[in-house]
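Entry 14. Structure prediction run on the chain below.
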Amino acid sequence: MYKNLDMFILPYSDDNEPGDYWYDCGIIESTKILSSFTDSDWECLLANLNDKSIYWKIRLVECLGDLHNIYELQIILELIDIDNDELFVSCVDSLRSINLCSLPENKIKQIELKIASLVQNASLPVKSVLGDFMNKLKK
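Output returned:
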């Protein structure tokens, strides 16, 4: 299944590609593939994650949040530390759907600091995502 996901995301990982197909159909199909993953598929994905482009990683994170498995949080926490604002916001967006009880306090503080530095110059939609996440942390 990992190869299916990789091939499905790969054609749409170039930033020159129009995003309509990805957002209309690609996320749904990729999420279906991810929901069929076995433990070995997830382990393969994690092992190959560093070799993927930023755009591939963003696409992957956009599919996470509603699968309700242990791998989602692990992947997001690995990717959230990469120095790319768009990837960071995508990670935060996906985290809004995940139970964060197991998120370490030091990781929460690290995310809050990054949000504070980004929110000042962010667009309104990004501010909304970041603000909603911060509100979730306060509950």
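The mean pLDDT is 91.
Filed with the rest of this week's runs.
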